Amino acid sequence: MPGAHSPSEDHGHERGVPVNPVFAAEPVDIPRFTIPDGGLDPEVAYQVVHDELMLDGNARLNLATFVTTWAEPQAERLMAESLDKNMIDKDEYPRTADLEQRCVRMLADLWNAPDPGRAIGCSTTGSSEACMLGGLALKRRWQHRRRAAGQPVQRPNIVMGINVQICWDKFADYFEVEPRLVPMSGDRLHLGVDEALALCDENTIGVVAVLGSTFDGSYEPVEALCAALDDLQERTGLDVPVHVDGASGAMVAPFCDPDLVWDFRLARVASINTSGHKYGLVHPGVGWAVWRDTAALPEDLVFRVNYLGGDMPTFALNFSRPGGQVIAQYYQFLRLGRDGYTRVQSTCRAIATGLAHRIEATGAFRLLTDGSQLPVFAFTVAEGEPFSVFDVSAALRESGWLVPAYTFPADRQDLAALRIVVRNGFSHDLAGLLLDDLRRVLERLRRQAAPVRGAESAGFAHGTRSAPAAERCRSQP
């Protein structure tokens, strides 16, 4: 059945969209699902599209998304000035290509690569593509080692927590790698070290550690994981590398938690990805993948073409894409510097932790996390309250706030939560306004006899799995 996110019905407008005469010299009718025979005045076309988009939610009030929704006008101007630049055409746009490589080196330095000048990496359309590249490099390195030893390469697997973003399920499916997922257990809502080790064998291409879970904002124990894998190698000879999915945390931890060891300071970390369009503070879409050195990225995965002029290496899954986001990333690195990023991310964390504890103080909720790692926190309804998290989410939407309600995956499908993502541009003032609206909502919801909405009413499913998928993802030794 089509839903709100699958607009396949015409809702009675079989003949098209009648256009108000105020937009045009005379009324016209525009088809919804076919290309019109004739064109439109640009102002009419603009107004029709603009008016429909007014029905979207306000991006600044979207507390579900990790994606940047505010940037300085100078960054947006640079992006607008670069709309016509194709990022892949490095021979025609050498300055843009150079800015990309400068960003790679800056990130390699930020993440403590042994030799940032020799670290290799690239921009992508987002962290999902960067994860695919990181996983693909792990698989190819494993294949090379196995073939060199005369061993079969038919059954690769990858170990990760069931809380990983859905792109990792896609990677496993698309590239035919068995996903071995560590389920949640009790209060452990992400990957556990002992549980991950129990799933590793000679066919394991790597372990994925998430620095900032999308479910609750928590960091996974990368340093402890690497130490355990070091011990595993000493005991068994198994050499299992680690990829750090730092989609959000890799642009928070270096500034807010500089003493936290999770990056290339750990020799077992082969690659790291992040989203420039999340806490990198750039409008979508740009991501980054960086390998600790050239040995971590097999040369046979790099393609070279010359039909755009000059010899051009390429590794990213996408080919043509805009250069404006990469340019904006370089602008943000220059504009903010380490001190600026520290101020921005620390402020986000302060807002998140303050808001989390004020929500807890209402007595209606129990915190699962408090925003002290990622500036993200999750909370569930306290025992005895006559409403569900889905009731709260729907009620807040009436005031324009988009706060997702969702259930956790195996083996904590009994746990339903709300989650708030604090991003640059979500101020202390907005946090206070949200809290005011939440308190008003609670007055009404507490008059209910029982919860009205359940998981079936939730419109948010980012990173969650359907029941059949969850069953398929059960960990297997």
TrEMBL record:
One of its GO terms (molecular function) is pyridoxal phosphate binding. InterPro entries: Glutamate_decarboxylase, PyrdxlP-dep_de-COase, PyrdxlP-dep_Trfase, PyrdxlP-dep_Trfase_major. Its cofactor is pyridoxal 5'-phosphate. The modification N6-(pyridoxal phosphate)lysine is found at residue 278. One of its GO terms (cellular component) is cytosol. Its EC number is 4.1.1.15. It comes from the Bacteria. This is Glutamate decarboxylase.
